[in-house]
From TrEMBL:
GO terms for molecular function: orotidine-5'-phosphate decarboxylase activity. This is Orotidine 5'-phosphate decarboxylase. Gene3D superfamilies: Aldolase class I. Its EC number is 4.1.1.23. The gene is pyrF. Pathway: Pyrimidine metabolism; UMP biosynthesis via de novo pathway; UMP from orotate: step 2/2.
Amino acid sequence: MKTAPTAPEPFGARLRGAMDTRGPLCVGIDPHAELLADWGLSDDVAGLERFTRTVVEALAGEVAVLKPQSAFFERHGSRGVAVLERAVADARAAGALVLMDAKRGDIGSTMGAYASAYLTEGSPLFSDALTVSPYLGFGSLRPALDAARDSGAGVFVLALTSNPEGAEVQRATVADDGSRGPVMLAQRMLDRIARENADATPLGSVGAVVGATLGDTGADLAINGPLLAPGLGAQGATAADLPRVFGDRVRDVLPSVSRGVLRSGPAPRALRAAAERSVQELADALG
């Protein structure tokens, strides 16, 4: 008699465990030309590969999440994407969760194809989670949401991003689909995320991207899911800002740091030390 396949552990549960064990830190892998030059590397596939391998080998066994920015690999063509594929596999093998920062958003079969690429087990780019854009309508994300659920992966939905231009769309007022009257479009997205996470424990697998630079967000962040918080370091936010921005949801925050750690390279020991300092700063600020 065949036994039914075991359902994969949901991303939200795995993320909660990783944050509690390794600390709530996401380190971006952003090999842009300036940073490659700072490391004394060439702005080509060889430099990209050396940079990426160093970061993964130094940090994948230490931090909760690594977040490669897909664009910096795609700009080098197929050989750059091959570097990204290896980085994803090596990071996951070493115990880090991989959040692919690709911000994909489309409709129908195209969104389904993105879901197959990033959220379907067996794909060379299969990641633990993917950033997605809901501004073609939250329903357009359904192929990604379904694929993530089936594979035990997660998605992080752009809600209130740290770039100033985002407010033009995200803070636009729309009719509420409940009884509160007009709300921000970003709040509508947060409400839909909360529905996806209903009854999930210890944490839902659908997260939101909410910038750490925003101050008072003016939003209800009770989504029962993780809150990815970019903006620390180079964009001006600090660990001390997080309790003010996220209030009583701060335990669900996954702060993201890129240059604040990466500029400590290329020595692996220096990268690990910078990540450890960031984790400690976050622990001090978040209690």
